[in-house]
Amino acid sequence: MAEYGSFSAAAKALYISQSTLSSAIKELEAELGTQLFLRSNRGIQPTPDGEDFLRYAREIVEQSRALERRYRHRRYAPTRFAVSTQRLPFAVRAFQRFMEQLSWNSYDIAIRECPTYTIISDVAAGKSDVGVVALHDQYIPALEKTFEINHVTFTELERLPTYAFLRRSHPLAKRDKVSMAELLQYPFVTYDQEADRSEYTEEVVFHQIAEKTVHVSDRCSKVALVRFTDAFSIGPDLTNSNADAFHSGMGEIVAMPVEEISDSLHVGYLLQKNVAVSAAMAVFLDYLRDDIIVLKKTL
């Protein structure tokens, strides 16, 4: 009415009769106890109270439209999927294959390489759908308690040996196997973990005995240091090594058995307890199983 200046024009725009609109305005004025519009032969115009009412009404209408837009948009929101993983190349390869087969029109997916405790927290909080971890025999009992407290479950897929990773031109690279004493003559490259949480690392805890330790926070830095220096790394897999079937032609990094290390790593995934496996999770886990099998055969 304020926009059209007359009952007849406003009623026509609203597809209702003039009498229906007039009655509705009178009821509103009676309910509010004030006159909102002045009527005259020249049309209608808002009173001071009417102007005040219109200002608030416009704000409410705009907020209502914004709310509607927000939730209408959510019906078309992208499909989301996230994985948190230790710095394990086979997990990234599985995620890459998962991504290549996606047929969703819209998606928002993520893979996060992070410390083990962060993985547990991500899965527990629902930030990630799946967590990928490699755990040591001796720490499984303690970690099972942590899983229980955080309401996550661990499913083992395979057991993998631990290898030392050296560049191909390393002084020890021609050996069939190496000893810890031989390795410890060289810098040990290890990932940062939170203090007092060595049981969470995917690496054998060399830093407890190594005299030359280099801490890194990401896999790219570790690979670069191993490729271009005499530093060594420990783990089940490292990109660009002969343990990496997808990079075996590069042969930049050699995977070698360590004489004193016989413990295997329990490789598997974490899920939130009592959460059903979605179609996306099932596809990713299938790729993860396949890549772990390929890795084990290559080693």
Automatic annotation (TrEMBL):
Domain of life: Bacteria
Alphabetized SUPFAM superfamilies for the sequence: Periplasmic binding protein-like II, Winged helix' DNA-binding domain
Keywords: DNA-binding, Transcription, Transcription regulation
PROSITE patterns: HTH_LYSR
Family membership noted in the UniProt record: Belongs to the LysR transcriptional regulatory family.
GO MF, any single term: DNA-binding transcription factor activity
InterPro entries per record: LysR_HTH_N, LysR_subst-bd, WH-like_DNA-bd_sf, WH_DNA-bd_sf
Name of the featured protein: Transcriptional regulator, LysR family
PANTHER family listed in its UniProt record: HCA OPERON TRANSCRIPTIONAL ACTIVATOR HCAR (PTHR30346:SF0), TRANSCRIPTIONAL DUAL REGULATOR HCAR-RELATED (PTHR30346)
Residue intervals of the HTH lysR-type domain: 1-47
CDD domains recorded: PBP2_LTTR_substrate
Annotated Gene Ontology cellular component terms: protein-DNA complex
